Q: What sequence folds into this?
């Protein structure tokens, strides 16, 4: 019984985010003119998947008590790069995808190296590198354009067995391949320990620097997966500065809605995914209920403010910093 209580306590944020998303999506589908159909689910899934990948990327860094304000720009850079190299034959397309993923991982590695060995604050570092990544994206695509392997794009944004959105399948595969092994590895446990108390983790002999570095590398990798999917959805590349910033801000809201503490050491990437799905459904609900589009950013901003404030509310009940980490 105690194990169940501990599991529920540890995964409380994820469970709440999942329940919130389920309720909100049920309301959305129930009021959609087309009803609850595979096409409606596919459309919603394709829009939410982009934010889910970026939210996962953000969660990995926040767990270490850091923050990555460049994830949106890595997504934008990956989108622009993919519009150049994810084309041609099956072999060329495969090499292009690998190239995009490597580029994203290298962006994350640069962030990690500067934060860990340059000893700069993550917020300052990632603002600066984000500007650099956007500059490269703008160099690649000064104007919207390019293309992508349409056969692959249609497959990865379509439906499996004419029922299950392939974007959700891809999201599940990424969780199983990246997050699950990482969270159960020594580096994953060290990342949580560093987020709780970096000094204590270091004194315990845990590989703190390598854990933080790997968190940034995987963050860049996941953001590049989001960039690939953006290319698959749009069939083009665009260095959209506003879009990159929006995904960065929304990823923070999704992470907190998913139960990840901004202080680090608590939460999971799965919770961040459900937080992203719930946050994206807010816009869908406003659309279904025919809310004035001019007011939609206001409500999304209020939700963003509330989400970021959730962690601060919990601090009022904390008497000792160690109480924050059960």
A:
């Amino acid at each position: 019984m105690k194990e169940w209580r501990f599991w529920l306590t540890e995964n409380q944020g994820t469970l709440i985010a999942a329940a919130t998303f389920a309720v909100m999506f049920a309301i959305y589908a129930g009021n959609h003119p087309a009803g609850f159909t595979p096409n409606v689910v596919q459309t919603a899934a394709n829009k939410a998947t982009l934010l889910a990948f970026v939210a996962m990327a953000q969660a990995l860094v926040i767990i270490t008590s850091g923050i990555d304000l460049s994830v949106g720009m890595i997504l934008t850079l990956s989108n622009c790069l993919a519009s150049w190299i994810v084309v041609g034959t099956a072999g060329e397309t495969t090499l292009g995808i690998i190239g995009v993923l490597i580029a994203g991982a290298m962006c994350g590695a640069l962030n990690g190296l500067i934060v860990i060995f340059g000893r700069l604050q993550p917020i300052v570092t990632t603002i600066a590198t984000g500007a650099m990544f956007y500059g490269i994206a703008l160099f690649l695509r000064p104007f919207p354009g390019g293309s992508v392997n349409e056969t692959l794009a249609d497959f990865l944004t379509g439906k499996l067995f004419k029922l299950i959105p392939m974007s959700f399948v891809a999201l599940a595969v990424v969780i199983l391949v990246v997050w699950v092994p990482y969270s159960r590895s020594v580096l994953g446990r060290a990342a949580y320990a560093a987020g709780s108390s970096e000094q204590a983790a270091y004194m315990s002999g845990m590989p703190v620097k390598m854990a933080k570095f790997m968190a940034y590398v995987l963050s860049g990798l996941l953001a590049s997966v989001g960039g690939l999917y953006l290319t698959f959805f749009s069939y083009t590349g665009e260095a959209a500065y506003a879009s990159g910033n929006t995904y960065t801000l929304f990823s923070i809201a999704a992470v907190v809605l998913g139960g990840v503490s901004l202080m680090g050491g608590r939460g999971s990437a799965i919770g961040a995914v459900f937080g992203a799905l719930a946050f994206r459904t807010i816009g869908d609900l406003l659309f279904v209920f025919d809310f004035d589009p001019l007011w939609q950013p206001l409500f999304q901003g209020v939700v963003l403010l509330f989400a970021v404030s959730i962690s601060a509310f919990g601090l009022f009940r904390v008497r000792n910093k160690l109480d924050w980490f059960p």
In short: Strands lie at 159-160, 164-165.
